[in-house]
Design brief:
With 893 residues, the protein is of the alpha/beta class. The protein has 4 domains: 58 residues, no CATH class; 177 residues, 2-Layer Sandwich (Aconitase, domain 3), CATH 3.30.499.10; 228 residues, Aconitase, domain 3, CATH 3.30.499.10; 180 residues, Aconitase, domain 4. Strands 26-29-30-31-34-33-32 form a 7-stranded mixed barrel. A 5-stranded parallel β-sheet has the order 6-5-4-9-10. Helix 3 runs parallel beside helix 4. The longest helix has 26 residues. The protein is globular.
């Protein structure tokens, strides 16, 4: 199906065009009530509107409408067109790199490079590059921003080129906020208007937490940057109609429970229920008891409970929030009129018919954490100490130590005795919670109460404050809460994701030395959404998610080995014990501070010049050329080889014979394990490459900052220190065995290079839930560049499976047996037979796997015709480029 126009003008195959007069405008829209049953969930109604709007009069269009109305009964995939694409710098830089490379390839094939250009609104927020190097001092943010620009000058110059040279592409410069908080507070439209048409704001983003905007009633979720490129160029995203699971909320949160506690409870509940790949939609009387900020916190962690989206339909609270954040009255009126007219308005008394329903009484939510390594592992606060002790014992057993560790550290001339569980990082970070004034004000009031009681953060704790919006600092200052936060070490470190994505910087020096010298197990507590092994900080083995007030509480305690419900946090100067309950703020006081210190003008002022940037951004000067001038000496931005030697027609698909197992993995391997992430360590293959180019160790930066350089990134694939490749038992990180060299142990990168040189294909073998976590393109790009042709797993998570296909890597699902059956040692060679049927336009349901004389069956996970097309062409980039050569889109408008 070809894109006619974003708003669907000129298409009215079903006679659904209607008029809506509101706020002085007369707008066209496509009515869905004649096609949709009254009990169709709101999330599916938005999907239906999209299909109707782009219905081109063919039988395929009729089939797609029927597939949604009948809840996927026909098995027909539907094409979804994004209203806008949302990116951050980490995924955005390689996305723009690929667009620049596509312009070069278009030129080489004799086409017009200007056709490679976004056709829909594409907005990028730079928020993933600032690192918490400096902390606990008044100039922390200034110093961190200076370091950020020094490290990322090439990347930012490249994005400036994209901002000037690509149409419909806007950049929110560094230091503004975190993308999802900026989206909720400013960029989200809820209802789009273009050329006289009104239609839902369908937002697809290159970060899995794009779902945060679901809290505003906007349908959207995370996709790979490669899919984003296709969407920017006018391609649809093809998917089967998902099941819609309703979450019925009743009651209200009790005093002392926060939105963080709620989302951790829901994450545990929905993970256990099983919602992977499904739409989740909230309904019931309890919805009205949640602010939009609370809803956004819940929707933000949608990837952690595994669903595609987590939608809260629009209601009066949504309208209040839109006004509160500075949206115009005319737009608020449009949102209300359109959503009510289209049946997208929340009606508590008339619940939709869902595939399944889960119930939660909000009054049962209790203070909680999640950890030490998965967001679904909720720990009630009153059991945190005992659960910590059980977890640390398990870590000791894994490490073969079997005994508790202690270490003496000297900080500022004072010796401190640290034990396993010492809190090394306490970070108020991430849009998950910093977008929520209730928990942020609660943290500020708790800090005030703690300071008044004479408490201080422990000196071995690295304390950081990195909110997702400048508005947070505005209301902290207005309410007079900042001095108390700073007294406890929570100085502003920057506006960006920072600790939540692993840009936490080094620990306090003596603490890091103690960890590496003695094996001490230290912990982090952060108000983020992910706590996977190795993600937060390389020296920190155990990571806990918590509300901002609890982050401060653990900074005061200095250890996870404490029962905050029963034991004191510390003592007053007079020696009296101070418990958490003594300093926990009253809900009424939190409400009063919010009411008296936050208003719409704050948001209007903060976002008044959102795309302008500071003097550093404005001083970056690059020419607005049609094609980018690549610097062959750059270590940050290089032209990738994906399209080198590309022909106008794809090669025939062939069976894969004699493949070597490059990596064999167990269950629940996340994209954090697969993709290069965090700091580039001195012993890594990427570090050796940079050193050979003359880059100093202090300038290695993070993998996130170097995602525009494929030569760095492919060296970091499968190199996470927590990953255990069963092909090389007893090793960690990026190690395997080279069976062209008698099975000797070698790095994954070097072994893959040897296999590629010898023309030997490679596969990855894995267990269940392969590829969970963030939408990381390099979890697919890295293996593809290494030469991996297929991933054979027992099951996949949605985004990563899609990304593999987008890079031309085949996802296969084992039907019989597991990794140990298919490849007991990893020394086996594997043949995949039956793929050639794809050349006739047929996707085989299964293929045969041959391994050392044994035969297995695997399901081909090319779930839609579009996915099959991508794979036949070798990935989405060559598919789109060949389409642009033969069928130009509206990119020249």
């Amino acid at each position: 199906m070809s894109r006619n126009h974003l708003a669907g003008s000129g298409l009215d195959a079903l006679g659904t065009r209607a008029r809506l007069d509101v706020a002085g405008q007369s707008l066209s829209y496509h009515r869905i009530d004649g096609q949709a049953p009254a009990d169709l969930p709101v999330s599916l109604r938005i999907l239906l509107e999209n299909v109707i709007r782009f219905h081109d009069g063919t039988a395929r269009g009729d089939d797609q409408v029927r597939a949604i109305v009948e809840r996927g009964a026909s098995g027909t995939p539907v094409d979804l067109y994004a209203s806008r694409v949302f990116l951050h710098d980490t995924n955005g830089v390689p996305t723009v790199v690929d667009l620049a490379a596509m312009r070069d390839a278009m030129t080489a094939l004799g086409g017009d490079p200007g056709r490679v250009n976004p056709v829909i609104a594409s907005e990028l927020v730079i928020d993933h590059s600032v690192i918490a190097d400096v902390f606990g001092r008044p100039d922390a943010m200034t110093r961190n921003v200076e370091l950020e620009y020094a490290r990322n000058g090439e990347r930012y110059g490249f994005l400036r080129w994209g901002q000037q040279s690509l149409k419909k592409f806007a950049v929110v410069p560094p230091g503004t906020g975190i993308m999802h908080q900026v989206n909720v507070e400013h960029l989200a439209r809820v209802v789009m208007v273009e050329d006289g048409w009104a239609f839902p704001d369908v937002c697809l983003g290159t970060d899995s937490h794009t779902t945060m905007v679901n809290g505003l009633g906007v349908l959207g979720w995370g996709i790979g940057g490669i899919e984003a490129e296709a969407a920017m160029l006018g391609q649809s995203m093809s998917a089967l109609v998902p099941d819609a699971v309703g979450v019925r909320l009743t009651g209200a949160l009790p005093a002392g429970a926060t939105a963080t506690d709620l989302v951790l409870t829901l994450t545990e509940l929905l993970r256990a229920h099983g919602v992977i790949g499904k739409f989740v939609e909230f309904h019931g009387d309890g919805v009205s008891a949640l602010s939009v900020a609370d809803r956004a916190t819940v929707s933000n962690m949608c990837p952690e409970f595994g669903s595609t989206c987590a939608l809260f339909p629009v209601d009066d609270e949504t309208l209040r929030y839109l006004r509160f954040t500075g949206r115009s009255e005319g737009h608020v009126a449009l949102v209300e009129a359109y959503t009510k007219e289209q049946g997208l308005w929340h009606e508590p008394g008339s619940p939709p018919r869902f595939t399944d329903t889960v119930d939660l009484d909000l009054s049962t939510v209790v203070p909680s954490l999640a950890g030490p390594s998965r967001p679904e592992d909720r720990v009630p606060l009153d059991r945190a100490k005992s659960r910590f002790r059980t977890a640390v014992e398990s870590i000791r057993e894994q490490n073969g130590t079997g005994e508790a560790k202690t270490a003496t550290v000297v900080i500022d001339g004072t010796a401190h005795q640290l034990h396993d569980g010492a809190v090394a990082v306490a970070a108020i970070t991430s849009c998950t919670n910093t977008s929520n004034p209730a928990v942020m004000v609660g943290a500020g009031l708790l800090a005030r109460n703690a300071v008044r009681a004479g408490l201080r953060s422990k000196p071995w704790v690295k304390t950081t404050l990195s909110p997702g919006s400048r508005v947070v600092m505005d209301y902290y200052r207005r309410a007079g809460l900042l001095p108390d936060l700073e007294t406890l070490g929570f100085h502003l470190a920057g506006f960006g994701c920072m600790t939540c994505i692993g840009a936490s910087g080094p620990l306090i020096g003596p603490v890091s030395e103690a960890v590496n010298d003695t094996g001490l197990t230290v912990t982090s507590v952060l108000s983020g959404n992910r706590n996977f092994e190795g993600r937060i900080q390389p020296d920190v083995a155990m990571n806990y998610l918590a509300s901002p007030p609890l982050v401060i509480a653990y900074a005061l305690a200095g250890t996870m080995d404490i029962d905050l419900q029963a034991e004191p946090l510390g003592h007053t100067p007079q020696g009296d014990p101070v418990h958490l309950r003594d300093i926990w703020p009253d809900p009424a006081e939190i409400e009063a501070v919010m009411a008296g210190n936050i208003d719409a003008a704050m948001f209007t002022d903060a976002y008044g010049h959102v795309f302008a940037g500071d003097h550093r951004w404005q001083d970056i000067s690059v020419p607005a050329t049609e094609r980018f001038s690549w610097d062959e000496d750059s270590t940050y931005v290089r032209r990738p080889p994906y399209l080198d030697g590309m022909t106008t027609e794809p090669e025939a698909v062939k069976d894969i014979t004699g493949a070597r197992v490059l990596v064999k993995l167990g269950d629940k391997v996340t994209t954090d394990h697969i993709s290069p992430a965090g700091a580039i360590t001195a012993s890594s293959a990427a570090a050796r490459y940079l050193t050979e180019l003359g880059v100093d160790k202090g300038d290695f930066n993070t993998y996130a900052s170097r995602r525009g350089n494929h030569l760095v990134m492919m060296r970091g694939a499968f190199a996470n220190i927590r990953l255990r490749n069963q092909v090389a038992p007893g090793t960690r990180g990026g190690r395997t065995r080279d069976f062209l060299a008698d099975g000797r142990e070698s790095s994954i990168h070097d072994t893959a290079a040897a296999y590629r040189a010898a023309g030997v294909p490679m596969v990855v073998v894995a267990g269940k839930d392969y590829g969970g976590g963030s939408s990381r393109d390099w979890a697919a790009k890295g293996p593809a560049l290494l030469g991996v042709r297929a991933v054979i797993a027992q099951s996949f998570e949605r985004i990563h499976r899609s990304n593999l296909i987008a890079m031309g890597v085949l996802p296969l699902e084992l039907v019989d047996g597991g990794p140990d059956d298919l490849a007991p040692t990893g020394a086996e060679t594997i043949t995949i037979a039956g793929l050639e049927a794809l050349n006739a336009g047929h996707v085989p349901a299964t293929v045969r796997l041959l391994s050392e004389g044994r035969e297995f069956t695997a399901r081909v996970r090319l779930d839609t015709p579009r996915e099959a097309d991508y794979f036949r062409h070798g990935g989405v980039m060559p598919y789109v480029l060949r389409g642009l050569l033969t069928h130009p889109t509206e990119t020249d408008e």
